[in-house]
Specification:
heterodimer, A: about 325 residues, mainly alpha, Ferritin, two-stranded antiparallel ribbon, 13 helices, about 5% strand, globular, B: about 90 residues, alpha+beta, 3-stranded antiparallel beta sheet, 2 helices, binds fe (ii) ion
């Protein structure tokens, strides 16, 4: 059970650390941490590590279906990058008593903490490039925020390489999304259909709206610097102009009166997972949404099980 | 509810990490002759040879001119006397 924010504010050690990191102080060692700080930091890295690894079963089916050898190499290279990112997260977690081997291979797939955006194995190469364009962009915005603002210096430093590599994933995604948009009527239709599915998934990557979010530890301890809405805004300010410049339709626009980008719908909305279709006329409650996120898509457990048992070989090439 | 897996990867702790305690190496590299040799990251490996391989494949963001690995235990701290080095990660 989470401690109430009031309790932390009253604990002088916790409050002292909050005030210290608010001035830009960075921690280098576990010894400097309070329990509360350690908790929120480890939690953040734990989820980040899981999210890096699940990109493998999500992207890898496209290795089989992508049209040319270059495309196969591009996907495999991105997967290798993501596993490298996971390795760095593990290296950090080990300083907090995690054992990488059991963390990776001995946990039950249900226990993995993944986000819906990465829980749908790619059906073709177009889905992979659209996902890099919109999804890796979303991931990049969260990891850049950590690199720039995280009060745990070893994590901030390690993300320099991660972010450097993510820029390649995003620009690869943008270049090929544009290519397929212009290649043929069929490929254009497929790009639009894929964006229709991914856009709300990626917008939800940043979590609940700020006014509904109760846990603010990540910000209070400056484990990250920007709020959910601030990061979502940053994402929208990149993907909406990109989409408009290409001609791709997205359910968001710039609102001149408010001076910011806004979604054309009010989240959360219902997703038909089988058809991969959003029903904009059917709003669900946040309670229902959280339950769906917690459970994961139907692909989540089989995907992670493949990673754990290393069943790749036969059908891959 | 736990998922029944058809097969689980068997891990030979001795072979893959040389025992149950992890051994760490810090990775240093320079991009070209004019750049400083700087700390780029950290790997866990049971021996020097695997540390070399892991460092080369994980920190492959540049075509390094020079790269080397140093066992963490070999690093003698000056500013943090008596404690282990805090340089972990890039
Ligand atoms: Fe990544
Ligand atoms: Fe990526």
């Amino acid at each position: 059970m989470a401690t109430a924010l009031k309790d932390i504010q009253e604990d002088p050690r916790e409050r002292a650390l909050q005030e210290k990191v608010a001035t830009g102080y960075q921690l280098e060692d576990v010894e400097e941490m309070t329990d509360r700080y350690k908790d929120v930091l480890v939690n953040t890295v734990h989820i980040a590590a899981d999210l890096e690894v699940v990109t493998l079963p999500t992207y890898s089916p496209a290795i089989k279906t992508s049209p040319t050898l270059e495309d196969k190499i591009a996907i495999a290279a991105a997967c290798q990058d993501e596993l490298g990112h996971a390795q760095m997260m593990y290296r950090i977690l080990e300083d907090f008593g995690y054992d990488t081997h059991s963390f990776l291979f001995e946990r039950d797939p249900e226990e993995w903490r993944t986000f819906q955006m990465l829980e749908f194995p790619h059906e073709d190469y177009i889905e992979s490039v659209v996902s890099m364009c919109y999804g890796d962009r979303a991931g990049y915005i969260t990891t850049v925020d950590l690199e720039e603002n995280c009060s745990y210096a070893p994590l901030a430093r390690s993300l320099r390489k991660v972010n450097y590599e993510e820029t390649f994933h995003v620009s690869h995604g943008e270049r090929w999304t544009k290519f397929f948009w212009n290649q043929s009527d069929d490929s254009r239709r497929r790009v639009q259909e894929t964006v229709d599915f991914y856009f709300p998934l990626c917008a939800a990557w940043f979590g609940m709206p700020d006014d509904l979010k109760t846990r603010t530890d990540q910000l209070a301890y400056r484990v990250r610097g920007a709020s959910n809405d601030e990061m979502r805004q940053k994402w929208l300010s990149r993907v909406v102009p990109f989409s408009e410049s290409v001609g791709i339709k997205v359910p968001a626009h710039y609102d001149a009166d408010q001076g910011k980008y806004v979604l054309d719908y009010e989240a959360p909305i219902y997703l038909d997972e089988e058809k991969r279709e959003w029903d904009y006329s059917r709003q669900i409650t946040w309670k229902e949404q959280l339950k769906i996120w917690k459970k994961g898509s139907k692909h989540k457990v089989p995907s992670i099980a493949r990673v754990i048992s290393e069943e790749w070989g036969k059908d891959l090439w | 509810m736990a998922t029944k897996l058809k097969s689980r990867k068997k891990i030979d702790q001795k072979r893959e990490r040389g025992g149950t305690d992890p051994k760490y190496y810090e990775v240093f590299a320079r991009k070209d002759s004019h750049s400083e040799l700087s700390h780029v990251g950290s790997v866990e490996a049971p021996n020097d040879q695997l540390a070399q391989v892991r460092a080369w494949y994980i920190y492959d963001q540049h075509k390094w001119k020079e790269m080397c690995v140093v066992p963490l235990e070999a690093i003698i701290t000056v500013t943090e006397e008596g404690k282990s080095a805090k340089i972990k990660m890039a």
